[in-house]
Amino acid sequence: MSAVSVPLRTAAGESMLAQLARKEIGRYLRHPLFGVGVVLVALTSIGEPDGNMSSLGNVIAPAAGLGVIGLLVMASLTRGSDQIAESAGTVVVGERTRTLGLVAALIVPFTAGLIWLAWAIWAYQHWPPAPNGAPFGAVGNDWAYANLVALGLLPSLGGPILGLIIGRWVPRRGAAPLFAVLLVAETIIMQGIFEPLRYLRPIAPWVYFGGPTGIPEDPDRTVIMTGSPQWYSVYLIALCALGVVIALLHDREQPRRKLVIALAVLTVVAVVTCTLAITTGVQETMINPLPSGRP
């Protein structure tokens, strides 16, 4: 079904999209899983972060709490949006408008991500990484801040956008949890554990660029892996934009020519920026000369 109902009564001058956006923002805020994710992120942000990586060691929290959980939240909201709209009134609203209303709700997890990023930058400056941590050598703070953006902030958009795609294209119960499990499995595989995949790992939507990966004689030695987190951040933004376009393309009753053009352009941008994320920045694995200091 591509057209549903929403209330006739709106604030003076308020467009239907604005009304839907306001409604979806409220629904996202009230979703219990979003609350769970926020609590998870908040709890992991209490106190001093990891001594070797500072707040760089905390990026997994917003990635999971706002990204993976956000996937589940948005998929749920997308499936439920039609039923809610149908019971509300008599004005017909197309699927594309409803999808844009859900896109507007991304402001909720993104704002939470921005709050976390502000804390992470403050924590990084207040408790800088130890000399045997990361970054080190010629790699500086710009590398660290790019990591915080790519791995901490942008998942707050990417996860929910993936949930929107799933809700539009695979609206079956159980699809979102299955995709979440597959996403986590893919993320584990692409972290540089397997040497043949290490150089190409920035293709994946969430990868570390450094950490206590270790070496044979020191399993916790800090290592900086290849690639540019700066270009990786741009690549992830392109993927987010692509995801929105893919979700909008599901509506076949509206003209799709401009969306197809946008899809082609964004695909090229994603390929170019991914290539730059792989081929620029650090091009040889860097090993911190200082031992980890752990037994």
Number of separate structural domains: 1
How many strand units?
5
Characterize the largest beta sheet: strand count, sense, and whether it forms a barrel: 3 strands, antiparallel
Mean pLDDT: 91
Shape: globular
Output the radius of gyration. Answer: 21 Å
CA(first)-CA(last) distance: 61 Å
Strand content: under 5%
Strand order of the largest sheet: 3-4-5
Secondary-structure element series: EHHHEHHHHHHEEHHE
Sequence stretches where pLDDT stays below 50 over 5 or more residues = 1-9
Number of helices: 11
Proportion of helical residues: 55-70%
- Helix vs. strand class: mainly alpha
Write the layout of secondary structure elements.
Layout: E1 3-6, H1 16-30, H2 32-44, H3 60-86, E2 91-94, H4 95-104, H5 107-126, H6 141-153, H7 155-169, H8 175-189, H9 195-198, E3 210-211, E4 223-224, H10 229-248, H11 257-279, E5 286-287
Antiparallel strand pairs: 1-2, 3-4, 4-5
Task: Spell out the key features of this protein.
mainly alpha, disordered N terminus
Structure overview:
By secondary structure, the protein is mostly helical. It has one domain. It contains 11 helices and 5 strands, in the order βαααβααααααββααβ. It is globular and about 65 Å long.
